[in-house]
Design goal:
The structure is a homodimer of 341-residue chains. Helix content of chain A is 44%, strand content 16%. Chain A has 341 residues and is an alpha/beta fold. In chain A, helix 2 (43-50) links the parallel strand 2 and strand 3. Chain A is globular and about 55 Å long. Chains A and B meet through helix 8 and helix 9 of A and helix 8 and helix 9 of B.
Chain lengths: 341, 341
Amino acid sequence: MSEKMLVALDAMGGDNAPYAMIEGTVNAVNGNNNIKVVLVGKEEIISQELSKYKYNADQIEIVNATEVIETAEHPVAAIKKKKDSSMVVGLHLLKDKKVDAFVSAGNSGALLTGGLGIVGRIRGIERPPFGALFPVRTGVCLMCDSGANVDVRPSHMVQFAQMGSIYMEHVLGIKNPRVAIVNIGAEEEKGNALVKETFPLLKECEGINFIGSIEARDIPEGYADVIICDGFVGNVILKLYEGLSSTLLSVIKAGLKSTVMSKVGAALALPALKKTVKSFDATKYGGAPLLGLNGLVVKTHGSAKAVEIENTILQCDMFKKQAINEKIKENLVLNKTKEEN
Amino acid sequence: MSEKMLVALDAMGGDNAPYAMIEGTVNAVNGNNNIKVVLVGKEEIISQELSKYKYNADQIEIVNATEVIETAEHPVAAIKKKKDSSMVVGLHLLKDKKVDAFVSAGNSGALLTGGLGIVGRIRGIERPPFGALFPVRTGVCLMCDSGANVDVRPSHMVQFAQMGSIYMEHVLGIKNPRVAIVNIGAEEEKGNALVKETFPLLKECEGINFIGSIEARDIPEGYADVIICDGFVGNVILKLYEGLSSTLLSVIKAGLKSTVMSKVGAALALPALKKTVKSFDATKYGGAPLLGLNGLVVKTHGSAKAVEIENTILQCDMFKKQAINEKIKENLVLNKTKEEN
């Protein structure tokens, strides 16, 4: 491995592939000498697209992969069948330590399946979740799982809490991070079957600061540092965060233009308004790493545009320095289940 | 029954009971001659609290109930055991047609259980959902289920879609309302087990305009008229809607005061800003009726304050005129399941 940070990027995954991937890559390397991107996918298409841009040739490499895993494909079948897909080839580069990270905007389920099967998980981890940072009033919060595992068991949720807690404490430096489970009421008795079964396990779990249930209305206020839920609920929360912020901003802008007085006010206030809303934009955190793997696999939005791809590539440098999975490995104390005792 | 609209109110349920219930009741009757509220709960406490207010004595009546179902109690056990609770007594008033509606801010699960057991459901309905209206950019949207059933089966979701569709078409007059299921991707293959099993049933369901999956980010834009999900997810969405709108508004206000120029702008723009955000406030719709019951049972927020109680009481008049459940009864074409054929 060279001294440069080496990021393999799935050039074919996501709604805007390969164009956004290539534009984002060029912008990332043009802005940072210390990064090299390995574009994985159909060589001919990538070369042709790359020829439109100027960049330092040492910083971009293409690795050919002839197949593409589509968003709608069944994850397990796709990973098994499409050995020469950009995702499978990219994950092998990571496994073989030819790159420091693998980034994809493609099929989340396939990325999880491939991450588990090819890169492998830390001993004892059952299901790696996506750990996504998002903005709250008081700063930043971690959503765990933000979309990798849509049907989970209580024991998985407990590990999400443990890994999320290690992330916030040992990577972001938040002492004794407050861990809460998403629920529809404050009381232990509330919730669906999954939450009711998970709650007592979290209470008993050592090494985490479990503060109980959090109702969705309290999430933006920053009442917890680590938010635990299944990947379906986590994905719904983060996407609503994005969508509602953006809709509200545009409704507010329209409203500000509704009267002459407010129009004048808006002209004066709009720069500050935009800045404020930007500080609350969930997309700025871009990628979410799979927690608990033996390597750095990062998912970006399926709908990611060039700027998000660029941000995610640059983020990998930070993720690598933060050594999230290494810290999880060092600090994780696994709860012994009955079967293990 | 008199000509007045008769609303029984659970005076003991909810975080702010009984004070907010009594204040809200007094304000509702003082502003509307045509409503009579029956306060159900501990007579002595209610009388004492009522004595602080001025109101037309013909418009408020107390029905004594000595027990209270707490928020954290197990719904089925609570309804079975506490025969003299404000909730059970109130539901019996509705069943016996002594009132036109029953409103509670108490234990949602108990309200569902009691609604099913005491008031009864329309023939063929498996699980009544809460149908909550909430604001979107293009107007209004119905969330179904917004919190009654936290663990559901695909057949329940299909009925949520049918009832929600009838509500929007026959009550709100939206022709051929677009029905969408909350999902984490646009494709049929996406989702958790519940969504994957429900999707093909919704596609085959006659009499609804099923447009497929909706991602949470698209909900505020108004891409669908009826949003289908289980009560856990629905509750999370509505509460995040509330919380995020409120947090964003306060972050924006603080941001507007951050520079001298924006401060001047804010002073001019704030009235328009407030008006705009108010148009997007999910709490203004207040109560959500249980769809598919043989009577009008309405749930308000557990955290409802006097103004929300007042709004919900006034809403009952509209709900009664809209005859939601009667229209569901008239228009529902039940899908025959294999067992029935």
